[in-house]
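Input structure tokens:
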């Protein structure tokens, strides 16, 4: 079976690797370089907090487990970092209770316990107790993950966007690329992230998206002992490669102008050692968000061999959801897991 996967972000790479492992001949096509889309500018926290409804929470929990499994399976895997997540702010005890009820590992730390895990935090910024800790969480270096997945017997065409599909009746026969190259295909998977609506339109499918612009600040390398995902009330931090620290805030995303200095100031108030760092780069990204916020995964009723793998939280979800989508591309029906995430829900609500 010959499959063309459109997009070489975490989703495209995960779907392609799952297909190749099961014997499909896979070509991944990207208009840029692998990981140059949202996946290369993501906070990439692997978690299932605040994920509703329950079926979406469960999909994310399965996504977390898939990351741990893959990292354990591959010798010298260097993209997955566990260590859990720490958060303090309002209502942590209530959040912890609600998540524990769902079976999500969660607990409360005292200030001393939190400082044992994260000694770089300014102790005065921490409450005396009620600091939430979620031991199963982690974060991923998406470009390393993508490189690993694409190394699994997949052909990759870069810097050559898919511009149209060759469709007859309800079947896609192939794709045409910007360069003029034409690829025949027994199946096409749309993994185009924020551009998924454009690639859906090529198949005559109207996929509503409400993408959100985001800002990520990368500091210069700095000697701060930060080793996990930390959510302080005004800033989120995690380690980035080579001693750099990655900063993010939902509030800044909403009001990006002139906000970078505030983000660094806020981070320094949590980890005083960050004072020694400068801003090395600021990247803007675009969260790929389907119209109702939930993933769009798997087969499409009107185009028999066209499939979706599009969502926010794609870093958490890609390995698990990628397997489910690959199952459907290869002819299995995964309605058991994917019923809530079908493209057709948008057509029904029109
Ligand atoms: C600031 C920020 C923070 C985030 N934080 C988290 C987080 O903590 N945890 C989490 O799980 N998720 C997080 N996300 C979301 C997550 O990063 C995305 O869901 C995920 O990266 C999407 O991956 P993707 O492969 O679908 O898209 P992308 O990585 O964007 O890949 C799509 C690819 O398709 C290519 N493409 C598009 N159109 C075409 C075409 N016509 N032809 C060929 N190629 C094409 C693009 O060039 C691109 O490389 C965050 C996102 C942002 C922006």
């Amino acid at each position: 079976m010959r499959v063309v996967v459109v997009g070489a972000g975490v989703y495209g790479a995960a779907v392609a690797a799952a297909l190749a492992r099961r014997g499909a001949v896979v070509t991944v096509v990207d208009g840029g370089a692998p990981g140059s889309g949202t996946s290369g500018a993501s906070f990439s926290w692997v978690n299932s907090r605040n994920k509703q409804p329950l079926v979406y929470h469960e999909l994310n929990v399965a996504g977390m487990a898939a990351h741990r499994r893959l990292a354990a399976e591959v010798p010298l895997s260097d993209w997955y970092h566990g260590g859990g997540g720490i958060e303090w702010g309002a209502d942590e005890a209530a959040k912890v209770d609600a998540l524990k009820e769902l079976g999500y590992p969660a607990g409360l730390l005292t200030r001393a316990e939190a400082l044992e895990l994260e000694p770089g935090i300014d102790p005065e910024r921490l409450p005396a107790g009620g600091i939430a800790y979620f031991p199963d969480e982690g974060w991923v270096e998406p470009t390393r993950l993508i490189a690993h997945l694409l190394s699994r017997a997949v052909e990759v065409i870069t810097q050559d966007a898919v511009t149209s599909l060759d469709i007859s009746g309800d079947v896609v026969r192939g794709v045409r690329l910007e360069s003029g190259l034409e690829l025949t295909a027994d199946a096409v998977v749309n993994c185009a992230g924020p551009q998924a609506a454009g690639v859906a339109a090529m198949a005559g499918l109207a996929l509503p998206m409400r993408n959100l612009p985001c800002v990520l600040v990368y500091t210069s390398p700095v000697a701060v002992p930060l080793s996990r995902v930390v959510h302080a009330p005004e800033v989120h931090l995690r380690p980035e490669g080579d001693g750099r620290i990655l900063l993010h805030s939902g509030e800044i995303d909403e009001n990006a102008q002139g906000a970078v200095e505030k983000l660094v100031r806020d981070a320094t108030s949590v980890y005083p050692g960050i004072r020694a760092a400068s801003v090395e780069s600021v990247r803007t990204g675009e969260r790929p968000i389907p119209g109702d916020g939930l993933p769009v995964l798997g087969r499409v009723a009107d185009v028999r061999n066209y499939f979706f793998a599009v969502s926010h939280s794609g870093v958490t979800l890609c390995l698990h959801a990628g397997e489910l989508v690959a199952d459907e591309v290869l002819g299995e029906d995964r309605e058991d897991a994917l019923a809530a995430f079908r493209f057709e829900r948008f057509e029904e609500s029109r």
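The mean pLDDT is 95. The radius of gyration is 21 Å.
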